Amino acid sequence: MDCMTRLNPLARLASVFTTPHAPEDFLRLVNPLSSARQLRGIVTRVDRETPDSATIHFRPGRGWHAHEAGQWARIGVDIDGVRQWRSYSLTTAGGEDPAITVTAIGAISEALVHRTEPGDVLFLSPPQGDFVLPEHPRPLLMLTAGSGLTPVMSMVRTLVRRRSDADVELVHSARTRETALFRDELEELAGLDHGLTVHHWITGERGRRFDLTSTDDLDATVPDWRERATYVCGPTEMIDDAEALWRAAEVESRLVIERFAPITLPGSGGDGGRVVFEKSDKEVDADGATTLLDAGEDAGVIMPSGCRMGICQSCLVPLQAGRVRDLRTGEVHGDEGQLIQTCVSTAAGDVYLDV
Ligand SMILES: Cc1cc2nc3c(=O)[nH]c(=O)nc-3n(C[C@H](O)[C@H](O)[C@H](O)COP(=O)(O)OP(=O)(O)OC[C@H]3O[C@@H](n4cnc5c(N)ncnc54)[C@H](O)[C@@H]3O)c2cc1C
Ligand code: FES
């Protein structure tokens, strides 16, 4: 990525000036992974998966810990001088060297997919998340769509290669065969007869999505679905339908979900208002649908952020004055000094933030 820090030129320069010592001895002094303040990783390989997605392998520095299958990490990249953070599931098997698989849908993912190269530096936070495999082996159903396959791919890679008693039914939806992530590897793993059955649901060929508003598609595809611990990751609508269906079948305790976007209450946006970023000396008019985080970034304020969906608390900013609305509940609140989760809050009138 042309706008990211690269190690390679530094390594080349080091080898010229450090002889007879090993360049590594000197590089340790300026190693981009060695910052005490910010965990970093070096991109070691980039594999193209589909025209719009890529797997980025990286070597993390000290402070990283091995991930459990299904966990995610915050990844920061410097783009045009501004550090942008997004969350990505780790797609390699639990405990293996990490990688993320990114699908390009917006500015940051686009840069990661199309402009990342070996030697680039990624900023990192350690793996987290509780969308992880059950402690004891049991029959599993994985329901995924699009890039929602990523945390489940880590689980499949972990289970199928390492546990002889794996019993996994995976139903993955994609628009076309060409855009179905990991299709060849999944079909190969399913062919090993190691307890994985893969059902690819290609919406472009079937003319409709895998329907979770009734039990018909599930009954036809995985008849014993009610008995299985079920992991769902995909678009909001799919997750909402699954929650309703499992609740109606009175088996919701067997459902584990992972969302890539926040749950917002329809119509919870409210009025909007003027948002003043005091320390940055910037202000902007934000409508009731724009989060304070987006409003700040659009105005050029360096906003702290992480998951951007209300789970990691990385985006907290103190409120100086005004009221904000929580997009998840519609609740309007605001006390001076209160820490505001800017990724899920909008302005409810004029707002003054200490950032
Ligand atoms: C826990 C977690 C794990 C994630 N894992 C992955 C992953 O493994 N691979 C991956 O590509 N992305 C993943 N995401 C989404 C990722 O963090 C970014 O939101 C995504 O790459 C878009 O960022 P952007 O800056 O390109 O676009 P933005 O402009 O920030 O996002 C555009 C909009 O798309 C929404 N969105 C986010 N993800 C999706 C999606 N999959 N489908 C449709 N809309 C979406 C966002 O909420 C936002 O409203 C994950 C998100 C979370 C919270
Ligand atoms: S960025 Fe994670 S809670 Fe707001």
TrEMBL record:
A Pfam family per the record: NAD_binding_1
Regions that span the bilayer: none
SUPFAM superfamilies: 2Fe-2S ferredoxin-like, Ferredoxin reductase-like, C-terminal NADP-linked domain, Riboflavin synthase domain-like
Originating organism: Lapillicoccus jejuensis
Keyword annotations: 2Fe-2S, FAD, Flavoprotein, Iron, Iron-sulfur, Metal-binding, Oxidoreductase
InterPro entries given in the database record: 2Fe-2S_ferredoxin-like_sf, 2Fe-2S_ferredoxin-type, Beta-grasp_dom_sf, FAD-bd_FR_type, FNR_nucleotide-bd, MRET, OxRdtase_FAD/NAD-bd, Riboflavin_synthase-like_b-brl
PANTHER family reported in the protein's UniProt record: NADH OXIDOREDUCTASE HCR
Plastid keyword on record: no
Sample GO molecular function, one term: oxidoreductase activity
Cofactor(s) of this protein: FAD
Residue stretches making up the FAD-binding FR-type domain: 36-134
Domain 2Fe-2S ferredoxin-type: 273-355
UniProt cross-references to PROSITE patterns, sorted A to Z: 2FE2S_FER_2, FAD_FR
Record-given protein name: Ferredoxin-NADP reductase
